[in-house]
User: Fold this.
Amino acid sequence: MKRAAVGTYVGYTLFGVFVISIVSAGLVLRKRGYINPVLRIETLGIRHGLTAVEASYLLGFPPTKIVTEILYSLLKKKAVWITAASPALKLKIMEPFKDKTGTVETPLRYYEKSFLKAIKRDGTLDEVKLAKTVMLLRDTVESKLRGYCRKDTIAYYRKIVAKAWEEVEKAGTPELASKIYDEKLLWLLLDENFKNKTESTFSDKIFKPEPDWWWYWYGYTYYHPKPQYEPLSKTAGPPPKIPGAEFANNIVTAVEKTANNIVANLEKFANSIIPAKTPSQHTSKQPVHHNVNCVCACASCACVCACVSCACACASGGVG
Assistant:
């Protein structure tokens, strides 16, 4: 009986200590108050996979040059041809692309399809629809950048442009140089020194262009003082050899005039581009984690990212 009483007493004592411990712990936690969470953003690093046209927006090109980049993309795909170069461009949609959706052999990207829809019946470009193409490209690129480091991504694509020029400059023969230049054209156009590099690289080379240099023959035909070759003619014969200096001059002239004549009413085009949405006034405009070299592209939305795999908790928000 005594042992049972002692056991019961010990049990109650331990239970009491346990309860007191819980109460004490609760008082300590209450005393410490709410602990603010640590907000961090871990980026996904560089955003790979952008096209040259998409990179033109990322690198800060103005709308007219972005549209010029899209036009050259369509010229290279033989989707359009330029029937007039001034005072504003007039385009002809080639037969396989009449439905403006592309072909099985040559699919079109979203911004190319949008560009084709901006071509009016008379061949001129609808400024409002063209502005929508620019906005579509802008919003799509911004969406692709969410969670990635913008600064590192820009540096990455600048390296791609530099590498493209390096390949052209190291080409051993005119045929190889022209082939690489053709393949890398859209990236080469993103170089701020495109004009000077084109002139210096090709000043001492003789070009032997291929007949299907669709993008080049437009410039040669419409900006050359005495064109000797008509790419749309079935009886045009082989393309002429072109001295490097003349080739460079034609290319640079064509690019510059294309950008200047892309639309008849530049003011209407510019005014039709609605600015990107700005971050909400209720969100912080400062990165939420200051101990890293780069924050995610939508850092201004103050999203709370616990790790890289979450790819930003505010996937539907952010810049642009």
Summary: Strands lie at 80-84, 90-93, 206-207, 242-243. Residues 59 and 154 are 6 Å apart (CA to CA).
